[in-house]
Amino acid sequence: MHRMTDQPERWTQATVHPDMWVDPDDDPRDTEEGSPDGEPATLRDFLSGYRMTLRMKCEGLSAEQLARRSVPPSTMSLLGLVRHLAEVERDWRNWISDGEPLPKLYGGRDADFDGAVAEQAVVDAAYADLEREQAATDAALTAHPDLGERVGKDGIAIRELLVHRIEEYARHCGHADLLRECVDGRVGQ
Questions:
Q1: 22 falls in which pLDDT band (50, 70, 90)?
Q2: Which pTM was predicted?
Q3: Of 118, 130, 136, 151, whose CA is between 20 and 30 Å from 165?
Q4: What angle do CA 107, 137, 102 make, to 5 degrees?
Q5: Angle, nearest 10°, between helix axes 158-184 and 120-142?
């Protein structure tokens, strides 16, 4: 267990803007393409940026560091966030479908966080699950190009699903900022 006095020194890799995660020239989220055209492309661009931010916050950490819990009684960890987002990507496909829901990836309530243990095999599986579930949900949503189309048993609009995904990743990237700072002191937006 970490006591407040055991916390690492705060630091950033950035040298140009000390409140950033990396320098602008090294930031894979910044491209020369300019802003996207249209609402669907803009939504996908924001989602892509948050997905990449989550990965960046987890880079360079050991399985133990990724699985390190925040503050008791919370079960939140960076690895738990990766597993949680894989689980919710799968769940969003359930919202699109009229059929039987897909089974949970990790089991019952909070299993995504509870099962985030410091084993490299668990880390590797979590990243593979996340990539697979993201791709499957992206493909399912691509089949519905009209953002106003209502789908699934609840008749939810595709636009709402896309915005909800962005919100989920953005909220958890905020958690990842704090978790990473607790793990090794690294800061930056």
A1: confident
A2: 0.88
A3: 118
A4: 35
A5: 160
pLDDT tens, 116-139? 999 999 999 999 999 999 999 999
- Model pLDDT, residue 1: 47
Residues 140 and 93 sit within 8 Å (Cβ to Cβ): yes
